Fold this sequence. Notes:
Layout: E1 5-8, H1 14-26, E2 30-33, H2 42-45, E3 55-58, E4 61-64, H3 66-76, H4 87-116, H5 122-142, H6 156-174, H7 186-195, H8 199-215
Parallel strand pairs: 1-2
Antiparallel strand pairs: 1-3, 3-4
Glutathione binds at residues 13, 15, 39-40, 51-54, 65-67.
Amino acid sequence: MSKEVTIYGTITSPYVNRVVLACRRKGLNHRVFLPEGGSKSPEILAINPLGKIPTIKDGRTVLFESGVIVEYLDVKYPKNRLVPAGANAGARVRLIGAMCENYILLMLIRLFVQYMNGKPDKAIVADTINKLDDSLDALNQFIQPGPYAFGKSFSAADCYAVSAMVFLERIGKMMGSKDLLGKNRRNLKRYWTAIKKEPIVKQTMADIRAYAIKTGR
Ligand SMILES: N[C@@H](CCC(=O)N[C@@H](CS)C(=O)NCC(=O)O)C(=O)O
């Protein structure tokens, strides 16, 4: 058993909170810590030349890229598997993860960049929302209506889906309380309502809120 997994980063990052959810599901001691100087601090650059968060230390193991970290934790600490062993079930979980990552989070980050400096480009925003809508429609077809994204237990699909939904709500607020989730995506809406009741999700969302209030971000 690891003494403590150090996660370099801030819990507000969707990539970081995805890893925090994986640690919590596995009952791993962990701390989330951002050295002075942030992602490009000497401490992080010494172990991750890309200077990105999350970067983790687990004993002598150093890793970065949240998806790689989640898979590593799952193999190293097999309790409460995040990716089921079967070919189809494992692929389905990874598929939901990939949809959240490559089509939803990517579009949300584009919107974040537009709204961050308070001068969003209308054409970019409209195009991004169109693509986001298509991706949310697709996810709505694939995700279970809860309590879990796939199967009968919390999986890596939930790590990805929860981090994407938390970020979706954050971007919606930045855009003046826009309901990006929409009224008609029933599976996704029911999923989001149900998974938010999971204690590890509640705890992580509370930590995100507390950090955002403390830092004003
Ligand atoms: N693909 C990476 C993305 C990590 C990433 O872009 N993290 C952002 C924070 S949300 C970051 O480190 N930004 C700081 C920078 O690029 O300098 C992952 O999955 O971990």
